[in-house]
């Protein structure tokens, strides 16, 4: 069995490297986009007071006073990424859209799907995923990473490709459907483990959601694969950010990984809003799924009514463009502001000047969702965001993420689910702060919007995905 374990380790290493590469490219594209935007920014500083904190506002006028040129720069860069992202799956690999996870689940449970494990599908899914996330669409890389991990599990275990004409005469004993499914299962688990740095979560996810055929041996081998993927991603990410070497290779900084560093004394009263958030997550999750099913049915009816294949694909591409334009519709002026808080958090976003009261909402919508989630989870930021900004961001994010799911880009739903849940969780926390005030003693420290943002994120994630055990492990691995 040594060769089976060797392949599991090889698949885990490959998936970990792919996860590292995916995040580095996304970070680089986002940085490149905003560096390009900053070339058009000329800012004037103004101090003001907002949300209980001193705020430094930088009102931009654009290069040579051309506001619209600045706006077109953001919109144009996003549209270019979306067009390439959608085009790569529509014209290169239809099997790679939208996330590939349902297809993987179907295959592992006995359904045969054509071109699901094709090299073109791999390339198209990878390109579409990184461009879709970097463009600013309400999506994440999780679903495509599961698909890509399964693709690597299939390719590396079979050591053959009909497309490339490669048939290596080694490890041929694994070229059967049973072993092939085992390696695909391990690759899928390694994909989710690489994204969340949660090897146990990756194992439980495949057990709970992906595959129906299990034994103890496969469980241990899948865990080894997930562990290898997590270690590889962490090791490479320890010294690189946006492909820039920062030194300290192999040095894992705990403060950058652990969101809730200090332990928090809990009160039995905290279970009351927690139960409320659980019920709210179930209701909103059911609403999200129901709304998404209706949107996808209408989408299928509309596109199936178009007779010509080329026109149908073009229409699907234009839909993704419309989604992005809907998000950036009000982005005419750019504002930078720094909230003077403990974390010195810097946001860059765009709103119209007359929408100053919705400044924080615009920040939540334009900011990189992964960073935004971390900030919503942050403790001690009781009054950073008000009801108006949180409710506005929640409504917009809920609708647009529901619309994005199922569109013609390789995208995942985990980041939107966590973000949506964090928004309404923080609203509940803000309600408690409004009732009881900001508590600093040990008995009332649990009344913190950041804490309830994390609970809300888990509740909505569970409400949409129906996951329980694996979700708990993933959240614990992410937050502590």
UniProtKB/TrEMBL annotation:
Show the GO cellular component annotation of the record: membrane
User: What does the UniProt keyword field contain?
Assistant: CBS domain, Membrane, Repeat, Transmembrane, Transmembrane helix
Question: Which Pfam families does the record cross-reference, listed alphabetically?
Answer: Voltage_CLC (PF00654)
What the entry lists under InterPro entries is as follows: Cl-channel/antiporter, Cl-channel_core, ClC
What is this entry's stated membrane topology?
A: Multi-pass membrane protein
Q: Does the keyword Hydrolase apply?
A: no
- Is Repeat one of the keywords UniProt gives this record? yes
Q: What is its main location?
A: membrane
Annotated transmembrane regions: 6-26, 71-97, 117-139, 183-205, 268-291, 345-365, 385-405, 417-438, 450-476
Task: Cite a single GO MF annotation.
Answer: chloride transmembrane transporter activity
Q: Where in the cell is it found?
A: Membrane
Q: What is this protein called?
A: CLCB protein
Q: Which organism is it from?
A: Steatornis caripensis (Oilbird)
């Amino acid at each position: 069995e040594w060769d089976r374990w060797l392949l599991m380790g090889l698949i885990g290493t490959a998936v970990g490297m792919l996860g590292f590469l995916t995040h580095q490219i996304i970070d680089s594209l986002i940085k490149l986009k905003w560096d390009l935007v900053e070339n058009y920014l000329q800012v004037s500083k103004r101090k003001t007071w907002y949300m209980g904190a001193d705020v430094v506002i930088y009102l931009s006028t654009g290069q040579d006073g051309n506001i619209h040129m600045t706006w077109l720069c953001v919109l144009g860069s996003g549209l270019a990424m979306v067009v390439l992202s959608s085009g790569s799956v529509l014209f290169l690999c239809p099997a790679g859209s939208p996330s590939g996870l349902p297809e993987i689940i179907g295959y592992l449970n006995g359904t045969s799907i054509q071109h699901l494990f094709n090299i073109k599908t791999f390339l198209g899914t990878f390109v579409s995923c990184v461009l879709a996330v970097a463009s600013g669409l309400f999506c994440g890389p999780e679903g495509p990473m599961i698909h890509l991990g399964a693709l690597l599990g299939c390719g590396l275990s079979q050591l053959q490709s009909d497309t490339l004409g490669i048939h290596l005469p080694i490890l041929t004993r694994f070229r059967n459907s049973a072993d092939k499914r085992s390696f695909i299962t391990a690759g899928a688990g390694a994909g989710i483990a690489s994204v969340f740095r949660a090897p146990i979560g990756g194992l439980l996810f495949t057990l709970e959601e992906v595959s129906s055929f299990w034994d103890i041996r496969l469980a241990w081998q899948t865990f080894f694969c997930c562990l290898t993927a997590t270690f590889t991603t962490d090791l490479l990410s320890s010294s690189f950010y946006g492909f820039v070497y920062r030194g300290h290779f192999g040095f894992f900084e705990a403060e950058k990984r652990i969101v809730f560093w200090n332990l928090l004394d809990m009160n039995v009263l905290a279970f009351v809003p927690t139960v409320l958030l659980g019920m709210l997550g179930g209701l909103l999750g059911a609403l999200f799924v129901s709304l998404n099913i209706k949107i996808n049915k209408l989408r299928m009816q509309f596109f199936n009514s178009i007779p010509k294949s080329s026109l149908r694909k073009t229409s699907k591409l234009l839909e993704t463009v419309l989604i992005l334009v809907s998000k950036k519709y009000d982005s005419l002026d750019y504002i930078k502001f720094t909230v003077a808080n403990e974390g010195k958090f810097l946001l860059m976003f765009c709103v119209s000047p007359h929408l100053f009261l919705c400044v924080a909402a615009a920040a939540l919508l334009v900011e990189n969702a992964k960073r935004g989630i971390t900030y919503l989870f942050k403790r001690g930021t009781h009054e950073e965001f008000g009801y108006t900004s949180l409710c506005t961001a929640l409504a917009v994010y809920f609708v647009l993420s529901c619309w994005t799911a199922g569109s013609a880009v390789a995208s995942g739903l985990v980041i939107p689910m966590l973000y949506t849940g964090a928004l309404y969780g923080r609203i509940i926390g803000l309600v408690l702060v409004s009732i009881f005030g900001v508590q600093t003693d040990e008995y009332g420290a649990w009344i913190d919007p950041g804490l309830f943002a994390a609970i809300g994120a888990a509740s909505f994630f569970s409400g949409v995905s129906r996951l329980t055990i694996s979700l708990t492990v993933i959240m614990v691995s992410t937050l502590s």
